[in-house]
Design goal:
Blueprint lengths: L8 E5 L4 H12 L3 E8 L9 H6 L4 E6 L1 H15 L10 H20 L3 E3 L8 H12 L4 E3 L5 H6 L3 H10 L13 E4 L4 E4 L29 E8 L2 E5 L2 E2 L2 H14 L4 E7 L5 E7 L1 H17 L2 H20 L5 H13 L5 E8 L2 E8 L7 H4 L11 H9 L1 H13 L6
Parallel strand pairs: 1-2, 1-4, 2-3, 4-5
Antiparallel strand pairs: 6-7, 7-12, 8-9, 8-13, 9-10, 11-12, 13-14
Length: about 400
C-alpha cells in the first residue's frame, strides 16, 4: 500500500541533516503538507534552514527554542538523580528527545493536525523516546516513521543511497562517504554512531570530535575552576552566577579544551540489541563529578544510598523513553526532596582528560572535624563503639555454633 497524505499537514522533526532532509522530500512527494520543525536544544548549529526545508518540499519551517527547559527540567534533573545508564552514559540524547517531541506536539496543535513524523530508525531508541512522549501528550497522534515503511527502505536502504537521493534532488548535506558516521548534537553532548563506528574495534579519529580536544593535545597546564550549587542545581562558575544555558555552554568550552568527557561504549538498546556509541560530554561530566562530591559533604548517608539504589532504574526509564510516565514523576519527587541542602561550592582541577576534585565547602556541611578527627580528644567517645559492635555482632555470635555444626566456612 502506497502512503498518501491527501493534502494533510504533517509536522516533521527536522534537523536539516541527511535523514530528515530526505524524509521531508519523500513526505512531500506523498501528498503531505510538511511543516518542518527544528527544535533548538543547544546544538550550536546554523538553524537558518528555511530555504533548505522549503527546497525539500516543506510548506513551512519553524524553529522552537527549548534550550532553557531542556537544561533545567531535563539535564539538571538527571544530574540531581546522578543518572547514568549502565553506569556510564550521561543520557544526553535520551533526555533531549522528549523535549523535542513536546515542541512538535505544540506546533501540531497550532497547525491543527495530529500527524507527526520523525527520522528515527526501527532499530534505535529514539523512536521509543519520540513516540511514547507523543502518545502521552497527544493520545490520538498518528506517527509516520519512514524508516519503518518498506516502500521508503526499498528506495533508500542505507546512508549511501540517502546521500545519492539528496544529491539527485539538490538537497545540500554534510554527510559524505569520507565521514560515514552519524552525529547528533545538543548542549549536553555530541553523540556519534553508525558507519565506521559499527565496528567495535574501530578507533575514533580526532576529526570526529567537535567539543573535546583529544587529551594528548590538551594544554600542558592545569585549569582550575569552582562550581556552585543550590539544592543540587549548578548556579555559578568561579563564584560568578550564571543562567543555566550559559553555565553549561561555558563548562563545555573549558572542559572540552582540557579533553574532559569522552566516552566510548557498547550499550544495550531498549529494543534488545547492542550498539556502539562515542560521546563527548565535557560540561556534564564536570558537573556530575562536582555534584557527586558535594553530596558526599551535605547528604545524609542513608538518603544517599536510597537515591543511589533507584538510580539504575531511573536511568533506564529515561533511556527507554518513559519521561512522561507517572513512575518517573514520582521518583523525581524523591530526587527533589533528597537535594535539599546540597548547596555549596566544589573546587576542581582539569588536566588532559582528568577531572580532579581538590576541595569543597557548604553552609549545610554534615562533616564535623571535631567528630571525625583521628587526633586525641574531639567530641566522639570511642568507648561507645564497644556496645555498638556487641549489638551488631549479636546475630553472628548466636549463629557461630550453628555454622560450626553445619560445616560452614566463610573463607572457602
Amino acid at each position: 500500500m502506497v502512503l498518501d497524505g491527501k493534502g494533510q499537514k504533517c509536522v516533521l522533526a527536522y534537523s536539516g541533516g541527511l535523514d530528515t532532509s530526505v524524509i521531508a522530500k519523500w513526505l512531500s512527494d506523498h501528498n503531505f503538507k510538511v511543516v518542518c520543525v527544528c527544535v533548538d536544544v543547544g546544538q550550536q548549529e546554523d538553524l537558518d534552514l528555511e530555504k533548505k526545508a522549503l527546497g525539500s518540499g516543506a510548506i513551512k519551517y519553524i524553529v522552537k527554542d527549548m534550550r532553557k527547559e531542556f537544561v533545567e527540567a531535563g539535564l539538571f534533573q538527571c544530574l540531581k538523580a546522578e543518572a547514568r545508564y549502565e553506569g556510564k552514559y550521561l543520557l544526553g540524547t535520551s533526555i533531549a528527545r522528549p523535549f523535542i517531541m513536546k515542541a512538535l506536539v505544540e506546533v501540531a496543535e497550532e497547525e491543527g493536525t495530529n500527524i507527526l513524523a520523525h527520522g528515527a530508525t526501527g532499530k534505535g531508541n529514539d523512536q521509543c523516546r519520540f513516540e511514547l512522549t507523543a502518545y502521552a501528550l497527544m493520545p490520538d497522534a498518528k506517527i509516520i516513521a519512514p524508516w519503518r515503511i518498506k516502500e521508503f527502505r526499498d528506495l533508500i536502504p542505507g546512508r549511501k543511497e540517502a546521500m545519492e537521493y539528496a544529491k539527485k534532488h539538490n538537497i545540500p548535506i554534510e554527510a559524505t562517504p569520507d565521514k560515514p558516521w552519524s552525529t547528533d548534537p545538543n548542549i549536553a553532548h555530541r553523540s556519534h554512531e553508525s558507519g565506521l563506528l559499527e565496528d567495535p574495534m574501530y578507533k575514533p579519529q580526532d576529526n570526529m570530535y567537535q567539543l573535546i580536544t583529544p587529551p594528548e593535545k590538551a594544554p600542558d597546564k592545569v585549569t582550575k575552576l569552582s562550581i556552585g550549587f543550590e539544592n543540587g542545581i549548578p548556579v555559578s562558575v568561579n563564584g560568578k552566577k550564571m543562567e543555566s544555558v550559559e553555565l553549561l555552554e561555558h563548562l563545555n568550552k573549558v572542559a572540552g579544551e582540557n579533553g574532559i568527557g569522552l566516552l566510548d561504549m557498547v550499550e544495550n538498546r531498549f529494543v534488545g540489541m547492542k550498539s556502539r556509541g562515542v560521546y563527548e560530554s565535557p560540561g556534564m561530566t564536570v558537573l556530575y563529578a562536582a555534584h557527586r562530591d558535594l553530596e558526599g559533604l551535605c547528604m545524609d548517608r542513608d538518603l544517599m544510598h536510597l537515591r543511589d539504589s533507584i538510580m539504575p532504574h531511573y536511568a533506564e526509564l529515561v533511556y527507554y523513553g518513559f519521561w512522561c510516565g507517572r513512575e518517573l514523576k514520582a521518583l523525581n519527587a524523591l530526587i527533589d526532596e533528597s537535594q535539599k541542602g546540597v548547596s555549596g561550592e566544589v573546587f576542581l582541577e582539569l588536566y588532559k582528560g582528568n577531572c580532579s576534585i581538590v576541595g569543597r565547602k557548604s553552609p549545610y556541611s554534615l562533616y564535623d572535624e571535631n567528630i571525625a578527627t583521628m587526633e586525641a580528644g574531639g567530641s566522639y567517645n570511642q568507648n561507645d563503639a564497644t556496645g555498638f559492635l556487641r549489638i551488631k555482632g549479636l546475630p553472628f555470635r548466636v549463629q557461630a555454633s550453628i555454622n560450626k555444626k553445619l560445616g560452614i566456612d566463610f573463607f572457602k
